[in-house]
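Write out the 3D structure for:
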Amino acid sequence: MYNIIALIGKAGAGKDTLLRELLSNHPESLNEIISCTTRPPRQGEINGKNYHFMTEDEFFSLQATNQLIESTKFNNWYYGTPISSLTEDKINVGVFNPAGIRSLASLEYVNLIIIYVYVDDKTRLIRQLNREDYPNVPEIIRRYQADEIDFQNIPLISNSSFLFVPNKSKEDLHSVAPSLIKNKAIEVFGQW
């Protein structure tokens, strides 16, 4: 059985910041899920650290041999979670999109907590623009519009726990959210 904390939220909501905060403070309890994708790396992303970047042929090979516990197409790119990135002796934590969450929730061998990180649209756009030295504004707009569609019906899955985490300030992601998540993990998984 795999225990998974799945972070979701629109682009710029703070999912990666929260992930780094959790992992840096609890390396003995948490295992970072490194997903794979066919999209090209963004500025500053490192293969094997942020994602396993691969070709479509490589991705489809993993799918065909049942080496992914979930996979989805999002914004014309493929994303998936390799079984090899999970462990049964720690809580696995990673970033997912709504389609990935639906896939995870359907698996009988996964205990799932969904953490929805929310921030207002203005803040999200400013964060995305400031993320890179020379931001690709059309790509940011495309991701913003895609998120509006993909997050219309956040997947509130009945057989999992759901936690809504607003990200209004640095304190939200550096002190408030981690303690909420830790308490929820103890409640659902019986461990942290």
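The longest strand covers residues 110-118.
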